[in-house]
Amino acid sequence: MHAFDVLGDPVRRRILELLADGERAAGTVGEVVRAEFGISPPAVSQHLRVLREAGFVTVRPEGTRRLYAVRATPLREIEVWLERFRPFWDQRLDALATELARGRRARREQPARGGTTTGTPDRTGSVSEEDT
């Protein structure tokens, strides 16, 4: 199964998000996923199996529990595939950063240009006629 086929399912993406914070027991993952998606325990197990067989997660037994963790290799493969598209969003992110910087600069310069803001008290606490 192709990596994007695996990640195309919102339940499997959510499972990976949960595991991104570290290893978790299948029961813990199942509780969250069942609550959020309303699916049965066997359905959660099926999603975990798909992730395991596709190489996205590892599982290790600990007593009666099964602990799942993310495997980075398939995610790196996706990153390599996405790399060819980076120029599309890098340019837009750079433009966004420029606009944010302009906005911050404009806010810093605004009080210096205009003096007091309309309707604000002067040092004595009264509002001047110019401000009203």
Commentary on this structure:
This protein has helices at 3-7, 10-20, 26-37, 41-53, 72-83, 86-114; strands spanning 24-25, 57-62, 65-70. Mean pLDDT is 85; it is low at 123-132. Strands 1-3-2 form a three-stranded antiparallel sheet. The protein is built from six helices and three strands, in the order ααβααββαα. The protein has two domains: 3-70, Orthogonal Bundle (Arc Repressor Mutant, subunit A), CATH 1.10.10; 72-111. The chain is elongated, with a radius of gyration of 26 Å. Helices cover 62% and strands 11% of the residues. By secondary structure, the chain is mainly alpha-helical.
Task: Provide a quick synopsis of the model.
The protein has 132 residues and is mostly helical. It contains six helices and three strands, in the order ααβααββαα. It has two domains: 3-70, Arc Repressor Mutant, subunit A (Orthogonal Bundle); 72-111.
Features:
3 strands, three-stranded antiparallel β-sheet, DNA-binding, transcription, Arc Repressor Mutant, subunit A, WH_DNA-bd_sf, mainly alpha, 2 domains, disordered C terminus, 132 residues
